[in-house]
Amino acid sequence: MQILLLWNDCSANRIVKFSVEYSIEGDLLNVFDVVPIEVKLLDLRWGTVVTQMAVRSSKTYELVRSRFLATDGLKSLVDKIAERHHLSVINR
User: Fold this and answer.
1) Which end of the chain is more exposed for a tag (fewer CB within 10 A), N or C?
2) Range of the domain at 46
């Protein structure tokens, strides 16, 4: 299965769109891949999007993905998928 996820990286003033590949087998949620596909940079003063760009280079891919995984992004992702499928999160 696939889901698109928006993640608000407040410390870097950006919103990142991810494509997430996952499966559900019984009570087990398996996340296979988390791929950043688009970044929107925000103007803090006005709360508007200054620019948006596709994630094309491997350097940008790794930077955004590692930042997501280092924060609570993965926890948030699991919670959203579980909510979508009416699952309970017991262990991370």
Assistant:
1) C
2) 2-84
